[in-house]
């Protein structure tokens, strides 16, 4: 699939976030076969999403030694889903040889390690590739506003590690560790408190999160590498 050249008026958007819109994402079909590449801008325009454009993504859930989940609140500068709370790190493997490598999901894991450092300042040696556990994939679609949205096959990665944080304020507004009870309370009171949550995080919370969290110290029974869960 060839990238569509769509003109977009980026006036008023953050300069660094606009620059990142030039990164090349991996286009996939509904069975997650790589079929081409397109820049992040093109992938996230609703006019292209409405035509079926689909790309590969990942969501990292990082837990500390107390089995608390690290949440982030996306920065106000983000073009899609600004100020929303979400799991530890969410982004895209890029259309480069190292991140296109599908053996043992190594390309996605490399992308996760890269973005954990970029967004949260987590050093790669604190999150070695071998510690990431790939659980499954979800396929979802969601608008962010009238112009932007997401249509992704999202790889779910769990990792348990003690990490040092050095937050990139252009990416992340705030962070906090939460227990299961605290997470449930955040979800239950989100409408009342005005807490905004990313759509993929809400889907994962509703369908999977707590049964995986309960088995965090032995995730073997949770691993489902062949299924793509259609949460459309």
From TrEMBL:
Q: PROSITE patterns annotated for this entry?
A: NUDIX
CDD domains registered for this protein in UniProt? NUDIX_IPP_Isomerase
Q: Provide a GO CC annotation, any one.
A: cytoplasm
Q: Which GO terms describe its molecular function?
A: isopentenyl-diphosphate delta-isomerase activity; metal ion binding
Please indicate if the UniProt record lists Membrane as a keyword. Answer: no
- InterPro entries cross-referenced by the UniProt entry: IsopentenylPP_isomerase_typ1 (IPR011876), NUDIX_hydrolase-like_dom_sf (IPR015797), NUDIX_hydrolase_dom (IPR000086)
Listed under GO biological process in this entry are: isopentenyl diphosphate biosynthetic process; steroid biosynthetic process
Which cofactors does this protein require? Answer: Mg(2+)
SUPFAM superfamilies assigned:
Nudix
Q: Which UniProt keywords apply?
A: Isomerase, Isoprene biosynthesis, Lipid biosynthesis, Lipid metabolism, Magnesium, Metal-binding, Steroid biosynthesis
Name all Nudix hydrolase domain ranges.
53-203
Listed name of the protein: isopentenyl-diphosphate Delta-isomerase
Q: Which Gene3D superfamilies match?
A: Nucleoside Triphosphate Pyrophosphohydrolase
* Catalyzed reactions: isopentenyl diphosphate = dimethylallyl diphosphate
Domain of life per record: Eukaryota
Query: Which pathway is this protein assigned to?
Result: Isoprenoid biosynthesis; dimethylallyl diphosphate biosynthesis; dimethylallyl diphosphate from isopentenyl diphosphate: step 1/1
* Source organism per UniProt: Coemansia thaxteri
* Annotated family: Belongs to the IPP isomerase type 1 family.
> Per the record's keyword annotation, is Lipid biosynthesis included, yes or no?
yes
């Amino acid at each position: 699939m060839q990238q569509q050249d769509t003109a977009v008026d980026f006036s008023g958007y953050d300069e660094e976030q606009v620059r990142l819109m030039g990164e090349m994402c991996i286009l996939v079909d509904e069975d997650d076969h790589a079929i081409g590449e397109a820049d992040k801008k093109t992938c996230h325009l609703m006019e292209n999403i409405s035509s079926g454009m689909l790309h590969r993504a990942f969501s990292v859930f990082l837990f500390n030694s107390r089995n608390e989940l690290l949440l982030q609140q996306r920065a106000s500068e983000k073009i899609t889903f600004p100020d929303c709370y979400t799991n530890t790190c969410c982004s895209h493997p890029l259309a480069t040889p190292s991140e296109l490598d599908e053996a043992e999901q190594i390309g996605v894991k490399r992308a996760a390690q890269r973005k954990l450092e970029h967004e949260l300042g987590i050093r790669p040696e604190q999150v070695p590739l071998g510690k990431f556990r790939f659980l499954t994939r979800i396929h979802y679609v969601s608008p962010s506003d009238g112009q932007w949205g997401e249509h992704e096959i999202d790889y779910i990665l769990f990792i348990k590690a003690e990490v040092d944080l050095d937050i990139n304020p252009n990416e992340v507004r705030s962070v906090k560790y939460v227990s299961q009870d605290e997470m449930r309370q955040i979800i239950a009171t989100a409408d009342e408190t005005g807490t905004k949550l990313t759509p993929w995080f809400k889907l994962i919370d509703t369908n999977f999160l707590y049964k995986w969290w309960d088995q965090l110290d032995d995730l073997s029974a949770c691993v489902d590498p062949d299924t793509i869960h259609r949460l459309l």
